[in-house]
Amino acid sequence: GLGVTAIAYLWWRKNRWQLRQVGTVSQLLIYPIKSCRPVSVEEAECLELGLRNGELDDRHWLVVAEDGHMVTGRQEPQIVLIDVNRHGGSLCLEAPGMEKISVSFSLPKTNKVLDCRVFGTDIQGRDCGDEVSRWLTSYFQSSQPYRLVHFEPGVMKP
């Protein structure tokens, strides 16, 4: 046991971690809404659940179908054309042929909490309201309603 420890120590001492540049970050992108266009940022915090820049958290907003399953470019390819930006205290969505729509970063706590399914994992997200739901449903030209939900750490159904 002691011999193995001594050999390991000698190897570690010889091959100690040394910092060296292995790449250069040329652009930081945050995807506030899963599968929509990214937002380019100058800096970001690295958190347990992804990047953050101000109110923008990476993939904390999600488009879901009526049954709560996430919607990606596989189900609705035109979702990748939705531009997402921030303006003041709101998340702004723009898409071809659609008027711009804004959703407040501070959603009312009275908005419903919906059960959602993301890659086989059950989560909950706060519904962003009927106005953005109508916008998404119209954009996807669907008879099935779509909802935008926001993941809030610690959110629980009342």
Task: Give me a quick take on this structure.
This protein is of the alpha+beta class and 158 residues long. The chain is built from two helices and twelve strands. The chain is 15% helix and 33% strand.
Structure description:
- Strand 8 and strand 9 (101-104) form a beta hairpin.
- The chain has 2 helices and 12 strands.
- The mean pLDDT is 87.
- With 158 residues, it is an alpha+beta fold.
- It has one domain (21-150).
Count of separate structural domains = 1
Assign the structural class, choosing from mainly alpha, mainly beta, alpha/beta, alpha+beta, or little secondary structure: alpha+beta
**Which bin fits the share of residues in helices?**
10-25%
What count of helical segments does DSSP give?
Answer: 2
Q: How far apart are the termini?
A: 56 Å
Give average pLDDT, whole number.
87
Low-confidence stretches: none
How are helices and strands ordered from N to C?
Answer: HEEEEEEEEEEEHE
Describe the biggest sheet? 4 strands, antiparallel
